[in-house]
Amino acid sequence: MPSTLPDEPDTLAPDQALDGAVEHETKLFDRRRTTPSAARSFVAETLTQWGRTERLDDIRLCTSELAANAVLHGAPAGGQVLVRVELHATVLRIEVHDGGNARPEKREARETAADGRGLLLVSAIADHWGVEERQGPGKCVWAAFHHGVVPAC
């Protein structure tokens, strides 16, 4: 895993392309100060229900950072943030959608700065991350985590 934020978001290699989701859950959140915490809880509860708690702390942290960025820089006032959790055979993907058009940028936070490290953390913790356009306004920022194969039911 890289320790610095790449110039561009990273993508899954073609041989790591996502297959159809085995499980997925989506939830809308109003743009509020409490959204990152609520999104983190939603993702943790979903993964616990699915019995997929490996790397839960990493996934919660990335969810919180992506949701905070959506609230601070993406969702317009009165807007909403959509959080989607997708479980694939070997990849777990967290998506955070917002209505803003500005793409996340590499930021070099000063040592004394209280913020500006969110995507640096996501880049260091997630196996992959990226930004995708959506139909209509806004964007989707995602983080992916490799895991063991989903057992057949």
UniProtKB/TrEMBL annotation:
One of its GO terms (molecular function) is protein serine/threonine kinase activity. SUPFAM superfamilies: ATPase domain of HSP90 chaperone/DNA topoisomerase II/histidine kinase. Keywords: Kinase, Serine/threonine-protein kinase, Transferase. Pfam families: HATPase_c_2 (PF13581). Gene3D superfamilies: Histidine kinase-like ATPase, C-terminal domain. Residues 37-143 form the Histidine kinase/HSP90-like ATPase domain. This is Histidine kinase/HSP90-like ATPase domain-containing protein. It comes from Streptomyces fuscichromogenes.
